[in-house]
Design goal:
CATH topology: TIM Barrel
Structural class: alpha/beta
Radius of gyration: 18 Å
CATH superfamily: Metal-dependent hydrolases
CATH architecture: Alpha-Beta Barrel
Number of strands: 9
Number of domains: 1
CATH class: Alpha Beta
Helix content: 40-55%
Strand content: 5-15%
Largest sheet: 6 strands, parallel
Number of helices: 13
Oligomer: single chain
Strand order of the largest sheet: 4-5-6-7-8-9
Length: 302
């Protein structure tokens, strides 16, 4: 894709997955720094934190016509896990604009099992000698389903609050089996639903399940930073990602940066690089406006 054409497209785009600071994990930007860097470069961003509700950072400034900022909450222990009141409070603060509610990430059982460290947050992720890590065996990992693979009562209650407050669900770092269960329940309740980076090795949702959920109305998210930060050169081959995206179909696909880490590019650069890589690997350039502009706006009711 022509560079100027790509920049023009990104200026209208919404990044549905961007990590903001301050946070326990080091982040590239505070909100003020993000606005200074990205105003005029991208249409909007959903700001994510593993540990706090981001609407508290952006209330009062998110309606800037040149940079739309959307708040979110992640149902980790830092926010009380399945906390209906936290969902309600963030939704009220957000007014008419919906928040995104992520299922557990770093406290999801699936994440803790796949993370081979003995720590909840490995110290090497923080790189701060004053950081005090907690052992994983001091935590009770969060699952959204019970031993019989039924959605637990507290999760259902959170879904009821989300439906009432018109939130968006994103499936976080739970297992693909859990994500499928909750996504189907959310869709039945009319909750816009995003399947969070299902190709990630720690989740590895089968493509046929991704397609099924897309047919039910879910949006499937593919992220640039997952490819950029891959552990091995062969992780997440771009040609295979393009095949999967084409199978899902542009109308039910979003591509996000999942950026915000200190070493990684800013959102607009990340998305620009990603669409260039995807185009080089066979993706039809005509679909990029759908997956970067139209679908995010539809999910957010804009």
């Amino acid at each position: 894709m022509d560079e100027e054409k790509a920049k023009e497209l990104i200026r209208k785009s919404y990044d549905m997955h961007f990590h903001i600071g301050p946070d326990i994990l080091p982040r590239k930007y505070t909100v003020e720094q993000l606005i200074a860097e990205e105003k005029g470069n991208i249409g909007g961003l959903v700001l994510k934190s593993h540990s706090f509700p981001t609407i508290a950072l952006i209330d009062g400034i998110r309606q800037d016509p040149e940079l739309d900022l959307i708040g979110s909450i992640t149902l980790n222990y830092f926010m009380g896990g399945f906390n209906q009141s936290a969902i309600y409070a963030s939704s009220v603060m957000s007014g008419e604009q919906p928040i995104v509610v992520w299922l557990p990430t770093i406290h999801a059982e699936n994440h803790l099992v796949q993370n081979k460290s003995k720590y909840e947050i490995p110290p090497e992720w923080i790189k701060d000698p004053t950081f005090k890590p907690r052992y994983k065996d001091n935590l009770r990992a969060i699952k959204v389903t019970d031993w019989a693979e039924n959605i637990i009562r507290k999760m259902n209650e959170c879904l009821e609050t989300m439906a009432e407050m018109k939130c968006v669900l994103a499936t976080g770092h739970v297992s693909w089996q859990e994500a499928e269960k909750v996504a189907l329940a959310a869709l039945d309740m009319g909750i816009p639903t995003i399947i969070t980076h299902p190709m990630q090795r720690d989740i590895a949702m089968p493509l046929d399940v991704q397609v099924k959920l897309a047919e039910k109305g879910a949006y499937i998210e593919y992220c640039h930073i997952m490819y950029l930060d891959r552990d091995n050169p062969g992780d997440y081959p771009l040609a295979e990602q393009v095949v999967c995206m084409e199978e899902i179909g542009a109308d039910k696909l979003v591509i996000s940066s999942d950026a915000g880490q200190c070493k990684n590019p800013k959102s607009s650069e990340s998305l620009g690089e990603f669409i260039g890589l995807l185009a080089d690997n066979g993706m039809d350039e005509d679909v990029f406006e759908t997956i970067l502009v139209k679908n995010p706006k539809k999910i957010l009711g804009l």
